[in-house]
């Protein structure tokens, strides 16, 4: 049966989550994406003012908590990300220098920041394009097709949140592996793990960790309860370089496919620091001559194509170039959903 494989990068979630290069800027400003130009409210002011804390003591308590616990740490990591260029590069610096406690703290605050963005932007709903993608794939079924696989470099939970909300699931499920294990879920392999928390071997998110009866106006007061668990909570983030051989083994096992393959690349720029894993993925797809098309959904199509061709020797590049097709993409426009090839034949 034909297999449809997606590689997702940061731009695929750019309507809700900052791209890797924008993390430091967004963390410094700490304001949600999508504010009107010239609107200067930061995230804390938005919550306090828009949700109008009625209790002055709670407001002051939240203010002190924000200043002491969250903002200082976020600003600290924003400075590091700005200096090193991205969260990934700074994390690798900590890893190779065996600064394990610092790496664990980075994962916690990176997970927290991403979840805050997901909790507040779009009223807690995922990027509209993920909803469309889930809806189009499942059609009138209550599960996702088995012949669609996503390989995501993103830490965010957009695909998981979209499925959870679309199918009205109350829980995240019990798997804390890098890939979804539920038979009715889309097969998702998160190469760097995910920005969720692990509590009692169960995935948790702000939407489940915070008391459900409280409104968003109490969010930063409620976050204290989360911080009381901080030392016992593990995050789902596991950078690929922490267990590179394991990651490569799992990916190549998943891509051991003897069917025709249609590859779609959405919002992924093939950065240098992911080159080894990207090379393994692309060569695995090419080696059995089952790859039919490479769809590139990115405004910088020619640059992405150039990088893809760079993974192959000169005598193979003409053939690979013949597989590539440009799909128009403008990520400020929600009317352009994730590409689904005309050849798509779902298997449920």
Portion of residues within helices:
40-55%
Structural class: alpha/beta
Compute the separation of the termini in Å. 12 Å
Anisotropy-based shape: globular
Question: Within the largest sheet, what's the order of strands?
Answer: 3-2-1-7-8-9
Percent of sequence in beta strands? 5-15%
What's the main sheet like? 6 strands, parallel
Count of DSSP helices? Answer: 13
H/E element order: EHHHHHHEHEEEHHEHEHEHHE
Oligomer: single chain
Low-confidence runs of at least 5 consecutive residues = 32-41, 46-54
Query: Would you count the extended β strands for me?
Result: 9
Radius of gyration: 21 Å
Mean pLDDT: 79
Would you kindly provide a written description of the structure presented here, covering whatever features stand out?
The protein has 348 residues and is α/β, with parallel strands linked by helices. It has helices at residues 23-29, 43-50, 56-84, 87-96, 100-120, 128-138, 158-166, 206-209, 219-228, 244-254, 275-287, 301-309, 314-323; strands spanning 3-8, 148-152, 187-190, 193-199, 202-204, 234-237, 261-266, 291-297, 324-327. A six-stranded parallel β-sheet has the order 3-2-1-7-8-9. Strands 5-4-6 form a three-stranded antiparallel β-sheet. α7 links the parallel β2 and β3. The chain is globular and about 55 Å long. Mean pLDDT is 79; it is low at 32-41 and 46-54.
């Amino acid at each position: 049966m034909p297999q449809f494989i997606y590689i997702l990068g940061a731009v695929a979630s750019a309507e809700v989550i900052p791209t890797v290069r924008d993390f430091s800027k967004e963390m410094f400003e700490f304001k949600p994406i999508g504010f009107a130009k010239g609107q200067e409210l930061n995230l804390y002011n938005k919550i306090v003012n828009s949700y109008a804390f009625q209790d002055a003591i709670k407001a002051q308590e939240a203010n002190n908590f924000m200043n002491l616990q969250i903002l200082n740490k976020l600003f600290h990591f924003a400075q590091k990300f700005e200096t090193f260029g991205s969260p990934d590069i700074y994390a690798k610096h900590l890893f190779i220098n065996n600064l394990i406690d610092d790496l664990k703290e980075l994962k916690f605050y990176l997970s927290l920041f991403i979840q805050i963005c997901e909790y507040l932007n779009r009223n807690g709903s995922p990027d509209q394009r993920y909803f469309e993608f889930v809806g189009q794939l499942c059609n009138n079924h209550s599960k996702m097709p088995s012949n669609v696989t996503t390989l995501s470099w993103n830490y965010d939970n957009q695909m998981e949140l979209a499925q959870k909300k679309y199918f009205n699931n109350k829980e995240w499920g019990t798997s804390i592996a890098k890939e979804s294990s539920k038979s009715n879920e889309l097969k998702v392999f998160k190469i760097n793990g995910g920005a969720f928390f692990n509590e009692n071997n169960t995935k948790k998110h702000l939407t489940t960790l915070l008391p459900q009866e409280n409104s968003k106006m109490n969010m930063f007061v409620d976050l204290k309860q989360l911080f009381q668990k901080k030392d016992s909570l593990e995050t789902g983030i596991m950078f690929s370089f922490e267990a590179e051989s394991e990651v490569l083994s799992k990916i190549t096992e998943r891509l051991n496919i003897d069917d025709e393959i249609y590859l779609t690349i959405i919002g992924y720029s093939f950065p240098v620091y992911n080159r080894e894993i990207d090379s393994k993925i692309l060569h695995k797809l090419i080696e059995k001559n089952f790859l039919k098309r490479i769809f590139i959904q990115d405004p910088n199509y020619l640059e992405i194509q150039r990088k893809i061709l760079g993974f192959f020797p000169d005598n193979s590049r003409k053939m690979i170039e013949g597989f590539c097709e440009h799909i128009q993409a403008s990520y400020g426009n929600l009317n352009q959903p994730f590409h689904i090839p005309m050849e798509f034949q779902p298997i449920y």
